[in-house]
Amino acid sequence: RSSAKLVAPLGCLVSRQKHTLPDLPYDYAALEPHINAEIMQLHHSKHHAAYVNNLNVAEEKYKEALAKGDVTTQVSLQPALKFNGGGHINHSIFWTNLSPNGGGEPKGELMEAIKRDFGSFANFKEKLTALSVGVQGSGWGWLGYNKEQGRLQIAACANQDPLQGTTGLIPLLGIDVWEHAYYLQYKNVRPDYLKAIWNVINWENVSSRYATCKK
């Protein structure tokens, strides 16, 4: 599957294809030692798969409620659509944001934008790390693009709230800080996981997303 399909918007609810779990662009063990194979396998084949399955179920129920004009059921399904739809969107971005050949620093336009909006790459890294460490409970730390202001911003989202759907920022880089993303390897020491994940950030992917959203 192409990475473009991974970030497709949720399909039309009247006549639609079911959502499917995207393939990883690398093996489960490819991100070791920074993220081990057991975490990647469980995270992708169990957690992300559950979001996909539950999203399909919720959309089917929504489709039926829509056909009946049952607004009460449509409203009651919103939390499930948001949680599972967000989980699918977020993870589809997350997998492509990571690479066994990642790490280091971005180049070109993205690096210039980071320097412009955060002062330096080191300052940006420090801010996004601190924001992600500070997420209470489960959630995500994000680098996003504010299209109206033409600048980069960082933001935290709770649970599986999707960045664009809840803040309007276009997602460029997401860091999953749910415990299932790191606990088997890093236990409850989230800062160690966040220190390690910078070694596998796929800056080519992040830069490509930045170039696309600027058009």
Protein described:
With 215 residues, this protein is mainly alpha-helical. The chain folds into 2 domains: 37-97, Helix Hairpins, CATH 1.10.287.990; 108-214, Iron/manganese superoxide dismutase, C-terminal domain (minor pseudopilin epsh fold, 3-Layer(bab) Sandwich). Helix content is 53%, strand content 11%. It contains 10 helices and 3 strands; from the N terminus they run H-H-H-H-H-H-E-E-H-E-H-H-H. The chain has helices spanning 3-6, 37-68, 71-76, 78-97, 108-118, 121-133, 163-167, 183-186, 190-197, 203-214, and strands spanning 139-146, 151-158, 170-176. Strands 2-1-3 form a 3-stranded antiparallel beta sheet. Helix 2 packs antiparallel against helix 4 (78-97). The chain starts with a helix and ends with a helix. The model is unreliable at 1-14 (pLDDT under 50).
Keywords:
minor pseudopilin epsh fold; three-stranded antiparallel beta sheet; disordered N terminus; 215 residues; 10 helices; Helix Hairpins; mainly alpha
